[in-house]
Amino acid sequence: MEARHPRIGFVDNDRFVLSVTGQLVQAAGMTVSWAVPTADRALAASADPTRPIDVLVTDLQLEHETGLSLSRKIRLRDARLPIVILTAYSLTNHAFQARSAGAQALVGKDDFGMIIRVIHDVARGKTYSPVPGVTFCFRRRRQTPCSAGRKRQESPPCPQQNEKLPN
């Protein structure tokens, strides 16, 4: 992963949000590799070797799908691509779902500074949880998301929050 100038792929069905968030990210020294309004287009773009990304940033609520289902689909083919889910909805109500879908962070759309910090941190192999007791993680090899198919209390342990991935 490129930590200094991360390449970002954005997914949000609101084109205004795509534009504003993209401008903020570029102003923070990151590169927007692509920005698309649907999960299907994000899946295609993320598989395109001519437009690589270091972090996928998706809205929680998309038009025909959710950022959670997109995250699960990405995880089936790429266990290491960092995923940040943005939402205007309750962080508390969605943190465990985001973690279970394989995301490394969940961030409120109302805090632009935090969005930028979290994208930078996730690009460097760290995680971010807005909710105490919900630890996001990275997986070190190809497999399903952290707790797919398991009950909440049976979730396997994840690396400690903010643990750096080995190179």
Counting DSSP E segments of at least 2 residues, the number of strands comes to 5
Net shape: globular
- State Rg: 14 Å
**Residue-averaged pLDDT:** 85
The chain-level structural class is alpha/beta
Order of strands, widest sheet = 2-1-3-4-5
Report the sheet with the most strands, covering strand number, pairing sense and barrel closure. Answer: 5 strands, parallel
Q: Stretches where pLDDT falls below 50 for ≥5 residues?
A: 141-145, 147-157, 159-167
**Strand residue content:** 5-15%
SSE order, one letter for each helix or strand: EHEHEHEHEH
Helix share bin: 25-40%
Distance between the termini: 9 Å
Number of DSSP helical runs: 5
Notes on the protein architecture:
The chain has 167 residues and is an alpha/beta fold. It contains five helices and five strands; from the N terminus they run E-H-E-H-E-H-E-H-E-H. A five-stranded parallel β-sheet has the order 2-1-3-4-5, sandwiched between helices. Helix 1 links the parallel strand 1 (7-11) and strand 2. The model is unreliable at 141-145, 147-157 and 159-167 (pLDDT under 50).
